[in-house]
Amino acid sequence: MHAEQEQRHVYYDHDLGIEAYNLSGIVQKFPNHFHDYYVIGFVEGGKRHLWCKGMEYDLNAGDLILFNPRDNHFCAPINGEILDYRAVNINMDVMQRAVKEITGKEFIPHFTKNVVYQSDITQSIGDLYDAILAHEPKLKKEEAFFFLLQQILQEHAAPFDEADISEPNQQIKTLCSYMEEHFSENITLDDLLSMTSFGKSYLLRSFTKQVGVSPYRYLQTVRLKKAKEFLEQGVAPIDAADMAGFADQSHFTNFFKEFIGLTPKQYQKIFTDKPLPVTPAKEWPNE
After folding, report:
1. Helices (H) and strands (E) in the chain, counts
2. In this predicted model, what pLDDT tens digit does every residue of 238-278 receive, in sequence order?
3. Which of 43, 222, 251, 268 has its CA 20 to 30 A from that of 231?
C-alpha cells in the first residue's frame, strides 16, 4: 500500500544549478549520513523524528530543516506516519556565488540552526520549487531563489569562520583525505591505522565522535558522492557502481536508494528528462 502511495520527484534546474526535491507518501527510514551540499527543506505533511549532530527533534508539517555540508543526520517516521517533504539542494560553489550577490561579501555561510519550528520560510521554499517545476522564466526563478536565501541568511546563518564549529583533529582529517582520494580501493582498518597512533577500538570511537559517522559510513558516503557525479555525466549505473568502488550493482542500488531516496536510474534521469507536471503545493500550515 505504502509503495503505491510513494512519489519521489527530483529535478535539476540548469539555470540555477540546484536540485528541487519532493518526497511524498514516504515511510522509509534514512540512516545516519551527510551531504556535501546545503539542504533547505521542510515537512509538508506527516511527522518525523530527526537526529542531527547529537540533537533530537520531533518534526511536524511546517517545520523548516537546514543542513550544512557535512551535517550528519538520520530520521525515522513517528507512529508510522508517511512523510511529505520538499527541499532544494545547493552545492557550495552555487551558495557562495549567491551569497556574494546578496551580501556583496565573499564568505561561506553556516546555518546556525538545523530545525526551525513552524517557520514562514517554508512558503518561500514551496514558491521556488513550483517555479522550477513550472519552467518559469529564469528571472522569476532567480527572484524566488535569492528571496529564499536572503531570508535564511538574515535569520538563521553566520559566516563559517565566525560560527562555533568544532573540527576533527589532524589525524582524523588525514584519514578523511585518504578515503576521499582512494575511494575506489578496498580500504581496510589496518590501512587507516597505519596513518595514526591509534588502536583499532580507539580509532573507531574517535573517528565517529569527531566526524559524526563511522569510517566505513564515511567511505560509503564519499563513494556515493562520486557515483552521483558519474551518473550526472551519463555513465551507466553499473559502470558508476564499479568506478565508485561499490562491490556490486545490487549493493550499489540498495545503498543509493537508502540514502538518496531514489534508485540510480531515477537520479540519472533528472539530468536528461523533462520535469514532471507541477504538483501544486499544499496550503502552508501557518498561512
Report:
1. 11, 12
2. 999 999 999 888 889 988 888 887 889 988 888 776 544 44
3. 43
Which residue from 77, 58, 36 is spatially nearest to 115, judged by alpha carbons? 58
The rounded Cα 106 to chain-centroid distance in angstroms is 23
Of 211, 214, 222, nearest to 172 by C-alpha is 211
Model confidence, pTM? 0.79
DSSP-H helix ranges across the chain? 2-5, 92-103, 121-133, 138-156, 170-181, 189-193, 200-211, 215-232, 237-244, 249-260, 264-269
Q: How far apart are CA 44 and CA 85, in angstroms?
A: 5
Region of 180 on the Ramachandran plot (φ > 0 left; ψ -120 to 50 alpha; else beta): alpha
Q: Give the distance from CA 64 to its chain's centroid.
A: 14
The 10s digit of each residue's pLDDT in 211-229 is 988 999 999 999 999 999 9
Helix (H, G, I), strand (E, B) or coil at 19: strand
Q: Which residue has the cell 518525523?
A: 48
Nearest residue to 28 (alpha-carbon basis) of 86, 89, 74, 88: 74
Place of cell 518526497: 23
Cα separation, 160 vs 249, in Å, equals: 38
